[in-house]
Structure formats: C-alpha cells, structure tokens
Write a structure and sequence with these properties.
heterodimer, A: four-stranded mixed β-sheet, 18 helices, disordered N terminus, B: alpha/beta, five-stranded mixed β-sheet, two-stranded antiparallel sheet
C-alpha cells in the first residue's frame, strides 16, 4: 500500500507550532509575540535536537517514530551540515563483498584502530547495528553504488580488514544527509533553520529547555523541552588548517560542560593525513581516504613509497612489507596483507609529518598522493568524481594525469560528551549526545567510515531514548524560569554592550594560530603549558570584544558567541593533552613517545567546577567482558 | 602574487540597499569567497553571507557574480583580470534577508509538497537488489547540492514571482525524475509533476543546466525525459486502455499519487 507515504493529514498537527512562519525555515518575519514575563517567542516540544547533520536528523527521526513532538534546531540551512562533506562511505559489516565479514571483525578493527581506548560497549553496538542502519537509508531512497549482484557495494578503507564501506562514489555524506533530510521532511518534523542555541536550561538536575536566537533576525527563542539531544559535531574551527566548516566551533561540547555534563578523551584530535595544501585558500580541504582505498599511494619528493618505513609494531602482523604484496592485496585479501598507506589515520598523518619535517616534502609542504600512475583515468573519474572536480576547479590539477599534493588537516575530535553507551544519555538527566560531539566510541583514533555509521547508530539510540525519557519526568514537567531566560538573553547580547574592544575575527585567528602551533599533531609539555597560558589571555581579551552593526544576520555577533565555545573546548583539549603523558592515536607527545599501559587503563574526564573552571579527573576504563576480549587473543 | 581587488557588493535588506565599493587584499589561488571573508574579517564585520564547506559540496554560498549565478567558493579570482571590478549581488529570484543572504524558503516549501519515495518490499534475505546501470540515472540527479542556482536562473520565476505558486522549478523536476526512474519506487508522480509542479511551464531553454555547478544535465536527462513520460501517460491509447482493463497502474506496480497538502 503506497498511499501511506503520501497522506499528510497527521502532519497537520505537528505543523501547529510553526504557524505564521516560513514552512521550512521556520523564520518569523513579523514582530515577535509577547507571551509572558520575558516576552520572547516560545515553543514546547518533547525533544529538541540541536544539529541537523547525520546524527541530529537520525535522532529526530527516531524520536518522532517513538511518538515524541520533535524540533530540530540548526545553525545552517537544512541539508548543509558538515555530514555533507563526508566522502568515503559508511562502515558496516554487511558482508556484501566479503562474506567472511561480520560485526566481530568490524568490532576488532574499530578497537584496534582506537588503540583499545574505545568504550567497548559503544564499539560493539556500533558494529552490530550499522548494517541495518545502512539498509534503512536505502529504504528511504538512498542510491548506493552496487555490486555485480545488485547489492550495496563496499569499498576498502584504512584499518578495516575487509572492504566494508557502503558508498556513493566519493559523495556518500551528501547522499546520507539528503536521504535523512528528505525523510525528516516527509515526517513533518519541525526544523528551526539558521538558529543557534546558546544555553541549555535545567530545572534542578534535569534538562528543561534551551535558549536560542534566529540568525536571520537576531530574535530570541525559548524552547521548553524535558529532553535535549546534542548533535552539534566537532571543534575543527579552533585550528588553522582544518577540513571543517565554520559551524564546527564545539558548541555542543561547551553547552554540555556548562550544563554539568562531562567530557572524555578530549586530548584525542584526528588530523586526517590527506588535506589539500595548495593553493592557500583551499589548504585543509579534505582529500578522501578512498583515493588510497582505491589504489592511491603516498610518495615523498624522492618518489619513494615512504609508508613502508612507518609500520608500527602494533600493526606489523597485518600490514604488507613489500610493494608487491601491498599491490596484490587489492584483489586478494585472503593471502596478502594491507598496504601501509591504509594504516589508521593517526599513523599516516604522523608519517607525512615526519617526511615533510625531514625535508622530503612536496613543493608546497605536503607529500604526493598518486593514483594517476596506478589506475585508469576512467576508473578515477568514476570512483572519485568529487576529487577530480575539486582538484580541477580549485587547484588546476588533473588527478588522472598527475599526483596531488596533500598534508595533514584537523578533521575530527574523538573526545566528547561522556554518555551511557546504550542510551546516549550524559550524566545530566534529559541531556543526550550523539555523533562527533559524543565521546568514547572511537577511543584514541577513529577509523575512516566509522563516523557515518556512528551518526546513524547512536543518533537513533539518542532519539529513541530522549523520546522515552521525555515521558518520565515525574509529576510536574521541568520548568524554565523567567529569570533564567532573562539572564540568557543578557548573556547573548553582551558583545554589543562593549565599545572600543577587539574584533572577534582577530581573536579567532589568534586562537587558531595557538592551537595549530602548540596543540597540533606533535605535542610537548612546554608547548601545551604555553598554550594554556595563551588561551587564558584570549579568554580575557574575548570578554572585551566589540561587535559592530545590529542583531539582524550579523556574522560578527554570531562569531563572538561561538568564540566563547571555541575557547572553552580548546582549553579542554590542551589541558587533557598536557595531562596524558604518553602517545596514543590522535595524541602524540614528543616528550612521551611510547604508548603506556598505565594510561591505556584510564580516561581523562573534564567537568566544569565552581567559578567556571575546567576540572580534570582520571577515571578507569570500563572493563571489556571476556567473550569480547577473546577476539583479540587468537591469531 | 597578491594584489588589491576592487569589489562591489550589494549591502542592504528586504526594504532597501545599494552596491558598496570595497578594495581588499587577495592572494594567488583565491576564490571570490576568500575575498568576501577577508572583507568581513577586516572591514565589514557585519557583512552577511552564507557559506559552509568552501569546497563546492554544500551549495550554501550561491550568489550572482557579475550577474551570473555561481557558487562563490568555486569562482576563482584567476578567471578575472586583476584590474577588473567584481560585482557580487544576492540571488535575484529570492527575497533578500540581508546583504548576500536570501530567503530560500520557497525551495523548502516545494520540497515538502513532493510525495516521497515508497519502495517495494525487501528481498527474502532482508536486502534489496538494484543494478548499477539502473541506479546511475538517479545518482546523477542526487549529485544535486541544493545551491538553488537553477531555481534562481529559471526565467519562469526569476522575474515572475507570481509563477512560484504553481512552479516547483528545475531542482524539483530533478527530484521528480529521480524518483520516477528509481528501480524500486512504487509511486507514479507524472500527473503531479505536470499539474501541481508546473512541469509544462518549462520551455527547455537549458539555463538551469548551464549554471549547475555539479554539471547535472538537468534539461536533457531529467526535464525532457520527464516531459516525455507525462506525454506517454496522457496520450498513449494503449496505455489508456490498459489502465482501464488492469487494476494496476500503467507502469508495473506504480500507483498515481496525490500532492502532499500545502504546509
């Protein structure tokens, strides 16, 4: 019966809160409505989801399906979130290409990729549920590339034992976000676009709502909601060279911290080994790992495939040590080991860094990524159309004829809100987190392809549980007080009240410089201490910054508010990085180069203490059950 | 090497505005969006502009550059003479919110009206099968980054706001075609495309195809085939007879759908 997909009558009810505004942007063009004491626009929902990337959309769909009234609040237009930038694919052990693949193999790869610091339960749920989440996307209209049998095709990626990534050329993120977006629209879920949340309210210990402003008009909104899902993505904008967009200012991390939740693993920041390095205006833009998955290799200025010199002990048994074996692996995975170009990202990024430091880099300070000499032009254009387009348009490089120049770029933060693995709830009742803003799933380093699957698996879990929790607040729903609202409004308007101060863009630029230089790929105690001092100084400067213009669509004001989050998150990263005296995954210490079992048993947990100071504590790692431990013993 | 670029940028809101003259330092290899960002960071902190990925993947930074609808992040300064003044104005087909930011809610309204994908059941093993060759047509259309430049340039609505109610525009004809060509979909949206979406108002001037930054052949591969399918449905006597004799629709298991109600 196809009619059920067409009927829209049920949607009429969910439209009610949006009356009088643009049906999709939700933006109100008329004067604001005075409700009660504070006079701001107000909305009541069961679940408010902050962020409209893969995790946010999946959470909203799940909460809606569980019967909740749901709102999505996002800083950009619907469909523009950073998920759209994901290229390679969604890791899921569907076994379409290699029948031997199953969740246990995926689980093992994920844990080893994260250097065993992952929350074991999250990694298990992720590996078990990812295949069904992918099939669900197909149910909602996604058109994945196919195998010869007509099944969803799966491609090779770093750290994965088998070809496992469901993909659409090299634009998988676009396919995923469009599919989820179209599904959310079909379900009639309210979307507040170009709307930024500045604060989460609590009534006692429980979440009660959120405070936000319309970017378009600068007007404020109060959301009343017993459940809030953070799906705000990462923190990359705190670095100079990053693949992340302006939205990635660590809003969810900072909101969680201010609301009383805890952050874990913040010292682990992933530098993707291959970002563009030239021209300067595109420095940092991602070059997908699929280039290597599809046969591309890394060479230094001498033309040498240098990755063979950087195979760590930990991965020796599963990595090819000759070019011949590595090249055979693409067609025969049973009898050959993986090429070292497909080691986990942290390993490859460090190797590139060493090569350029040793003076064997490319003209513009990267290394060469060569697929032109190894695959046909036709295959490259078919498998990597966006890369072809991107290099052609932005760098004047034809990747079917010449090598690309690439270097590490800040890509992903493994750290995030500490959550319960099964329900995605933080330590604050009613506050959930999913996707990049949540911590634990990826340990010290994330494997490529595990992000998109993470968004789907934990987005759904967060949405379901947030909806469930919204019905269990006891007798009285949690309330937002007028005083809380007035304070939140005053706080948001503070940047307009100072005259003659600094421009927020200058402070942002200085922060990016500090993080890049002192809290980058390779770290030392001295530099990290220095960074903390400088971040303090920036926080002081930020208190006196000035915004010109007025509240209507004012990017200067928006940045001033986002900047506070960036400073908070940067402090967390530097603090945890200084504390962890070892090297592991996305945290490399020049002064503590070895991986250390002592540190392998603990997470660093950050909370906001009295007087707003960030506090750091050690916490033992959850213990993996024996049946899962056994997966790492054999062979 | 670096030089001083002259920029004219439209500054204003829904009610009033004017072109502002600026001179900004630019570097080799930069794009128009870089120049706008530098202007924002150094001279005009409140200059409103939408952007996200800065790599031609999200479709946020649409504007008109010297009158031509383009993505600011994919328009290289090297394509212009250093002495040339570059004029950047907001997309003309949509109401201005502020400076280069326009109200594109028209597109989101049209998206809501489109009956969504309704697949056949899964195969016995819980999976679905489609051949690569059959998904490729739809995949071309799903490359769309929703920059709305095709909507902006389409003369049916560009200077005729009144037509917007009855006309979904090239972006959504693409979507109709994608679903109509989906191997597993069960809806028949041809009548809808013609009646509610205004496919008939398009007279295939191919302006949309010309401005598409993804190079999607909107007119040739989506609109024209869709028009042909609509004609098939309307005039083919055999099909007509078939639809009277058989209980199913005229094409396999597809069922004709009604429009989603206006939001």
């Amino acid at each position: 019966m196809t009619g059920s997909h067409v009927v829209t009558d049920e949607n009429a009810n969910s439209q009610a809160p949006m009356a009088g505004r643009h049906p999709m942007t939700g933006n109100r063009m008329t004067d604001e409505v005075t409700a009660d004491g504070h006079g701001f626009e107000e909305h009541h929902y069961d679940v408010v989801v902050i962020g409209a990337g893969g995790a946010g959309l999946r959470a909203a769909i799940a909460a809606h399906d569980a019967g909740a009234r749901v709102a999505i609040v996002c800083k950009s237009l619907l469909g523009k979130a950073h998920t759209v930038m994901a290229e390679g694919g969604i890791a899921a052990a569907m076994g379409n290409v290699y029948a031997d693949d199953n969740w246990r193999v995926h689980y093992r790869d994920t844990m080893r990729g994260g250097k065993m610091l992952n929350n074991w339960r999250m990694a298990q749920l992720h590996a078990q549920e990812a295949p069904e989440r992918v099939l669900e996307l197909e149910e909602w209209g996604a058109l994945f590339d196919r195998t010869d049998d007509g099944l969803i095709s799966q491609r090779d990626f770093g750290g994965h034992r088998f070809a496992r990534l469901a993909h659409v050329g090299d634009r998988t993120g676009l396919e995923m976000i469009r599919t989820l977006q179209q599904r959310a629209v079909e379900l009639g879920i309210d979307v507040f676009m170009e709307c930024t949340v500045t604060q989460i309210f609590k009534d006692g210990e429980r979440v009660s709502g959120a405070f936000a402003y319309w970017r378009e008009s600068g007007r404020f909104i109060v959301f009343h909601s017993p459940s809030v899902v953070l799906a705000t993505g990462g923190i990359g904008k705190s670095y100079q060279v990053t693949s992340n967009s302006w939205e990635y200012t660590g809003d969810g991390h900072a909101l969680a911290l201010h609301t009383g939740a805890s952050l874990i693993n913040m010292e682990f920041v992933q530098f993707h080994p291959t970002g563009m390095v030239w021209p300067p205006s595109v420095k940092g833009i991602l070059v997908t790992e699929s280039v290597r998955g599809d046969g591309g290799v890394l060479r230094n200025a001498e033309g040498k495939r240098f990755m063979f010199d950087y195979i760590p002990e930990f991965f020796k048994s599963e990595t090819a040590d000759t070019e011949e074996e590595a090249d055979r692996w693409y067609d025969d995975k049973t009898n050959n080991r993986r090429p070292p170009e497909l080691l986990p990202r942290d390993e490859v990024a460090r190797a590139i860094n060493s090569e350029t430091k040793a003076g064997r880099g490319s003209p513009h300070g990267g290394v060469f990524l060569d697929i032109a000499s190894r695959r046909s032009a036709e295959l490259i254009r078919r498998r990597l159309p966006s890369m072809y387009h991107q290099f052609k348009e932005l760098a004047d490089v034809d990747i079917t004829a010449e090598p690309m120049e690439v270097g590490p770029t800040c890509h992903y933060v493994m750290g995030g809100v500490e959550v319960d693995p099964d329900t995605a709830v933080s330590i604050v009742p009613g506050l959930y987190a999913a996707g990049e803003v949540a911590g634990g799933m990826h340990g010290s380093n994330r494997l490529g392809g595990n992000s998109l699957s993470d968004l789907l698996v934990f987005g759904r879990r967060a949405g379901l549980n947030a909806a469930y929790s919204a019905t269990r607040f006891g007798v009285e729903p949690p309330r937002v007080s007028d005083t809380q609202v007035r304070e939140a409004a005053a706080h948001a308007l503070a940047p307009f009240s100072v005259g003659g101060g600094e421009n927020p863009y200058t402070i942002q630029r200085d922060l990016q410089d500090i993080m890049q230089r002192l809290v980058g790929i390779i770290r030392t105690a001295d530099e990290l201490s220095e960074s903390l001092g400088q971040i303090e100084e920036l926080k002081r400067r930020a208190e006196g910054l000035t915004v010109e213009g007025h509240r209507q669509y004012n990017p200067g004001w928006h940045l001033a508010l986002d900047l506070v989050n960036m400073l908070t998150v940067s402090e967390c990263i530097a603090k945890a990085a200084l504390e962890r005296q070892e090297s592991r995954g996305g945290h490399t210490r020049d002064d503590f180069a070895a991986t250390d079992d002592f540190w392998g048993q603990r997470n660093l947990v950050l909370t906001q203490g009295a007087a707003g100071r960030v506090e750091l504590n050690h916490q033992p790692l959850p213990v993996m059950p024996d049946e899962l431990k056994s997966l790492f013993e054999a062979k | 090497m670096g030089y001083k670029l002259s920029l004219r940028i439209w500054r204003g809101d829904h009610f009033r505005g004017e072109l502002g003259d600026y001179v900004v330092d630019v570097e080799e290899g930069e794009v128009v969006l870089d120049a706008i960002h530098r202007l924002q960071a150094t001279q005009a902190g409140d200059l409103a502009v939408r952007w996200n990925c800065k790599a031609g993947k999200c479709g946020s930074c649409s504007a008109e550059i010297n009158g031509r609808p383009r993505l600011m992040c994919m328009t290289r300064l090297a394509d212009f003479e250093e002495s040339e003044t570059i004029t950047v104005t907001p997309m003309r087909a949509f109401p201005v919110i502020r400076d280069l930011v326009t109200d594109v809610s028209y597109n989101y309204e049209k998206a809501r009206q489109l009956p969504s994908f309704a697949p056949t059941p899964r195969d016995a093993d819980g999976k679905r099968r489609m051949m690569q060759v059959d998904v490729e047509r739809g995949q071309e259309f799903r490359k769309c980054i929703e920059c709305f430049l095709c909507q902006d340039t389409c003369h049916v609505v560009r200077d005729h706001d009144d037509n917007k109610k009855a006309f979904a525009g090239p972006r959504f004809f693409l979507r109709y075609a994608e679903l109509d060509m989906h191997p597993l979909d069960t809806n028949d949206r041809r009548k809808l495309a013609q009646d509610a979406a205004g496919l008939g108002m398009c007279n295939i001037t191919k302006c949309c195809t010309e401005v598409c930054p993804e190079g999607i052949k909107i007119t040739d591969n989506a609109i024209i085939p869709m028009k042909e399918r609509v004609v098939d449905r309307k005039y083919d006597p055999v099909t007509w007879l078939g639809s009277k004799i058989f209980t199913r629709g005229d094409r396999g298991s597809r069922e004709e759908v009604r429009p989603r109600e206006e939001a």
